[in-house]
Amino acid sequence: MPSPDARKEPRPRRDWTFGELLDWTRGRFAEVGIDSPRLDAELLLAEAAGCARIDLYLRRDDLVDAAVRNRFRDMVRRRLAREPVAYILGRRDFHALELELYVDANVLVPRPETELLVDWILEDLPADAARPPVVLDVGTGSGAIALAIGRARPDARICGIDPSEAALEVARRNAERLDLHVEFRPGRAADLGRLVQTWAPPDVVAANLPYVASADLEAAAPELSYEPRLALDGGPSGLDVIEELVAAVGHLDPRPDVYLEIGADQADAVTRLLRAAGYAGVDVRPDLAGRSRLVRARRARTRDATGRGSPPAAADEEVEQHRQDDGQEQARRQGDVQGEPVPLEDQIPG
Predict the structure, then answer these.
(1) Taking 50 as the threshold, does the pLDDT of residue 341 lie above it?
(2) Closest CA to 167 of 209, 133, 116, 202
(3) Dihedrals φ, ψ of 69, to 5°?
(4) Is the pTM of this model over 0.85?
(5) To pair with 142 at 20 to 30 A between CA atoms, which of 59, 62, 97, 127?
(6) Among 304, 286, 306, 288, which residue's Cα sits nearest to residue 296?
(7) Where does CATH 3.40.50.150 sit in the chain?
(8) pLDDT tens-digit readout, 246-260
(9) pLDDT of 11
(10) Cα(10)–Cα(343) distance, integer angstroms
(11) pLDDT of 158 above 80
(12) Per-residue confidence at 335, pLDDT binned at 50, 70, 90?
């Protein structure tokens, strides 16, 4: 049990410097188990002060005025309650310095793993095709994947689909803000056949679908409780929506290349699904932590004058051989956060 002195509230102060606020907040965030305490403290104080993060250190010994302290206190309180920084700021940088996305609680916060998925797609998109590539982003959320590809490849024809109309509104808002010509439509992974009939046969299907097992969500990092469950919950196995997508692309003719972000323990299962759906070549790449989180499925094609084509017979033989051979985020910190309850208002510097 803490001593009475340890429980004393700090005396109110009116002379906090930028450096003191940063140091106090970083320590408090670390104390409650926030993963990136220094970065989060810098982002919030820079937002409150209306300056760049580097300016916080140039102004480290300057006093912080009352209006900035009040804004900062509100942000710190929300972060101590484990609300994601992106929701507090209302934005998230993604993939490129100028690709700043609006985000709110209707969409997932874009992650670095998804940036790696975009990189892989851009590596593979042909620059000299006879016609512009057609890309479909399934479960688009904020539009991160679709818009990043659109920024890098303005020649591409791109559509993002999502079952959430609220998410689509966020994606459309981002497209308008960024002046990118990307289409967004309502739809689920299982709707690909119908969508292709009314839109266009895709060369590439990209997806960051729900892949967390339902039971694991209850023990996941507290920040996930702020994000839409529809975009996280992959059913009992974590693979329900991924299975829907793989079944749908398996019925498309010609089949598109498929790029997926998956859970850290799902690479083998997803590889088997894709091979059973007719994909001969399935590759896996690691995320920044070295975990198998990205999957690409490609089917060899003979290209015609339009840039499209059909798979050669040898590919079918390879698929059959794979069938004979074969017969969330999981790595995120688990468990309860250790530390004190969220402090009262007068425990935050002011």
Answers:
(1) no
(2) 209
(3) -60, -40
(4) no
(5) 127
(6) 286
(7) 94-326
(8) 999 999 989 999 999
(9) 45
(10) 12
(11) yes
(12) very low
pLDDT number for residue 196: 87
Bridge-based pairing of strands 204-207 and 134-138 is parallel
pLDDT at 113: 93
Rounded CA gap, 197 and 181, in Å?
Answer: 21
Residue 341 DSSP code:
P
The DSSP code for 64 is P
Phi then psi for 136, rounded to 5 degrees?
Answer: -120, 125
Class of 14-81 in CATH? mainly alpha
Per CATH, the homologous superfamily of domain 94-326 is Vaccinia Virus protein VP39 (3.40.50.150)
What is the chain's Cα-based Rg? Answer: 23
pLDDT recorded at residue 348: 58
**Token digits of residue 294:** 């990205």
Residue with tokens 């005025």: 65
Q: Where in the chain is the domain with CATH 1.10.8?
A: 14-81
